[in-house]
Amino acid sequence: MSDHEIDYLCSFHMQAHLSLWYLGIIRFFQSRHDNTFMHMTQNIAQIIAQELNVREQQVSSTISLLDDGATVPFVARYRKEATGGLDDTQLRTLNSRLSYLRDLNDRRDVIISSIDTQGKLTPELKHALFEADSKTRLEDLYLPYKPKRRTKGQIAREAGIEPLADHLLNNRNADIEQEAAKYINSEAGFSDCKLVLDGARFILMESFAEDASLLQKVRQHLSQNSVIESRMAKGKEKEGAKFRDYFEHTEKLSKVPSHRALAMLRGRNEGMLTLNMNADPGNESKQGSYCEVIIAEHFKLNLGTADVDLWLKTVVTATWRIKIALQMETEFVAKMREHAESEAINVFARNLGDLLMAAPAGAKTTLGLDPGLRSGVKVAIVNNTGKLVAHSTIFPHAPQNQWDKSVRTLANLAKMHKVELIAVGNGTASRETDKLAGELIASVKAELPRLTKIMVSEAGASVYSASELAANEFPNLDVSIRGAVSIARRLQDPLAELVKIEPKSIGVGQYQHDVSQSQLSLSLEGVVEDCVNGVGVDLNMASAPLLAQVAGLNKTLARNIVMYRDENGQFTQRKQLLKVARLGPKAYEQAAGFLRIFDGDNPLDASSVHPEAYSLVETIAKAKGQAVEALVGNTDLLRNLSAAEFITDKFGLPTVTDILAELDKPGRDPRGEFKTATFKEGVEQVKDLKPDMILEGVVTNVTNFGAFVDVGVHQDGLVHISSLTDKFVSDPHTVVKAGDVVKVKVMEIDVERKRIALTMRLDEKAGDKPAPRAAQRPNSGGKQKPQGKPQHRTQQKSQPKQANAAMGNAFADAFAKLKK
C-alpha cells in the first residue's frame, strides 16, 4: 500500500471519528433540550395541579391533548379517562394558566440569557430566577441587570463616585464634607461637594430601589395596608355628577369590588376624578411613610443623628418617594384594574352563558315585531324552520296613529300563516306595541286560540341586521325588517340566533367597554363554544355562524359545509363530512360528536355518541340480542345494564356510562323549560311605578352587586345583593341568572334619573328600612353606592403608629435640612 493510500485511510478514519464525535455532541445538547422541555412541562403540570386541586397526571394528559390540537369541548366530553373528568370550566382555567406559565418560562429564558451575556449570572441568581413563580417576581430580580437609559446614578458611577457611596454607607462617623471633596470632578459635572453627594445619593437610591427582596417587603406592606383615594377633579363637580359617590371616597386597595374599581377608573379616564394610593392611611402627620422604615430596616441602617446618618435618611426618603412609591402606585392600580377586569369579564361570560342557554320556544311559526314610533313597527313572520315567509311595516303609533288598520293587517298575516307566537322587541314603544299584540290576540282568538305574545330582548338585533351575514341572507330586505326577523328567531332558538351577533353587542356585561377587549373576546368566544357544543347542532339546519362554533370547525369549514349541503342535499351520515372541502380527519374527530343528523341512516348520528364509539354500541346491542335501533331510547333495557361489563382498553367507565345515558335519552336538550314573564297592565313608564308594587319581570343582567330586572318600563331596576333573599348572599349568580322570570317589589323610584330600586324579599315594605340606592346599568356609567368607609387606622404589630410617625418625622426633617 502506498504512502498516499495510507494517508488517505488515516484521514478517512479521523473524519469518521470526528463526525461521530460531533454527532454525539449534537445528540447530547438535543437530549438536554428535550429533557429541559420535559422538566418544564412537568413543572407546569405540577403547579396547575396544585392550583386546581387535582392529580398531576390529569393535568399532564390534558396538556398533551391540547398540544395535539384537541379542543376544550371535545376533551371535556370525549376524553374523560385521560382528564379524570375535568369539566369545561376547569379545562379553560387550565388552558389559561398553561399559556401564562409558558409565557413566564419564555420570559425567564430571555432574562437568564441577557444576564448571562453580561457575565453577571451567579448560581444564586440563576436559582432565584428559576424559583420565581410570577412575572412580577421575575422582573424584580431582573431590574438591576435590565438595560436602561443613562441615569443620574450611572453618570455618577462614570464620574467615579461609587466608592464614596459605599464608604458613607459603611462608615457613619466619616466627615461627610471632607470625603465628598475628594471626588470633586468639574469636567464630569460634579464641581462641588453638594453635587458629589447628590451623585452618591442617586447611586444608592438606584441600588436600594432595585433590591428584589426589599420590593417584596414593601409590596407586602402595601397589599395589607394601602388605600385608594378618589377625589373630584378640580372644577368638575357639575360635569362629573354621575361620579359624585367617588368625590370623597377612600377604600382599602386590596378590597375594592370590581364595579367600584371600574367606576373610579372610568371617572379618572374621563377627567372627572383623581386617584391616588395612600401607603399610610393611619399616619395623620403625613410627614413620612412607614415604607421608609421598611427600607432602613432592610439595609440594617440603624440611623442616628450623625451627619452621615442624616444624609442616609435623605437617601431612604428619596428612594421611597422618587423611586419606589410611584412605581408601586402604578403597579397596584394596574393590579386593581386587572382584578376588576377579570371579575367584570367573568360576570359578562356568566350572563352570556345564561342568555345563550335560555330555553327555546321551539319550532313554531313566529311573528316578530320590532317596535318603533315615527318609523313604524317592522313585522316579520318566520316559519317553524326559521325561514322568512312574510314581512310588512305598520304605523299604529303617533304621528300616523293607524291602530285599527295595523291590527287588521297583523290579523290577516297571523291567520294566513297560522302564527303560534308573537315576539315583541323590548326597545322604544315596546309596551305600546305589546298592547297592540294583545288586541291582535283577542281579535283572532277563535281562529288561533293558542296565540301567545312574549317580550324579547332586542339587544344586538340592530348589529345583526346591518351585518354582512344578514345582507347575504336577505340582500333585498330593508335593514329594519332584518331586525324583526332576528327578534322572531331568537324566540324560537336563542342560541342559534345569538351566535350570529358579536357577543360584546348583546349587552349583558358589567363595564364591558372598560375592560381589555382582547381578554373579553377570548372569554366570550369560549362561552359561546361551550354552549353550542353543550347543546349540539343540527347538521342539516344550522347556519354557517352556528356551525363555526362547533369544536374543530371554523368559519371556512362552516361555509364549506353549508356549500356542500346546498350542492348535494342533506347529510344522511356523519362520515359524509369527510367529503367536505378542507375538512380532514382531525376536524372530523373534534366536530362529529357535536353534530346531529335526524332521520338519517344511523340513529346514533342523532345522538352525542361519538363515531369512534359506534363499535362499542354495536357490542352492547349484540350482547343483549338487540339491533342498535332497538337499543336507542329503550329505558327499561338500558337502566338494567352495568357499564362496568363493557369497559375495554379504549373505553373506560366514564365513557361507557355517558354512552348508556345518551342512548337512554338521545339528543336531549340541556336547556330548561320555556317560561315567559307577564308585565303588569298599565305600568309602561317609570312614572307609573309606585312603592310596594309587586311586579313580574325578567332578569337581564347579573353583576357582583345585584341583578337588573326588566319590569316593562324601558328602564331596568336593580335588586341589590342584600335584597335577593333573606339569607346572606356572597355571589348573586347563585340566586338568579340572566333570563330568569322573577317577582319583585318596588322599593324606591327616582323618576328624574330613571332609577328603580327593587327587592325580591316580597315581605319588605318600602318604608321599613333604607333601601339600596336606585341604580342604573353599570355599563352606562351610573354611580355605585359606597359600602361604608373601611377601617384603615389599625396598624400591624410590626409598625406601631407612634413608631411610624416618629420615624417618618425624622426622615422628613432630615430631608428638609439637606435641601437647604
Automatic annotation (TrEMBL):
GO molecular function: mRNA binding; structural constituent of ribosome
InterPro entries in alphabetical order: HHH_9, NA-bd_OB-fold, Ribos_protein_bS1-like, RNaseH-like_sf, RuvA_2-like, S1_domain, S1_Tex, Tex-like_central_region
CDD domains reported for this sequence: S1_Tex
Composition-biased stretches (Low complexity): 803-812
Coiled coil regions in record: none
Any single biological process term in GO: nucleobase-containing compound metabolic process
Biased composition (Basic and acidic residues): 761-771
CC annotations in GO: cytosol
Pfam families: HHH_3 (PF12836), HHH_9 (PF17674), S1 (PF00575), Tex_central_region (PF22706), Tex_N (PF09371), Tex_YqgF (PF16921)
Gene3D superfamilies: Nucleic acid-binding proteins, RuvA domain 2-like, Tex N-terminal region-like, Tex RuvX-like domain-like, YqgF/RNase H-like domain
Domain S1 motif: 692-761
Annotated region (Disordered), positions in chain: 761-812
Protein name: Transcriptional accessory protein
Organismal lineage: Bacteria, Pseudomonadati, Pseudomonadota, Gammaproteobacteria, Alteromonadales
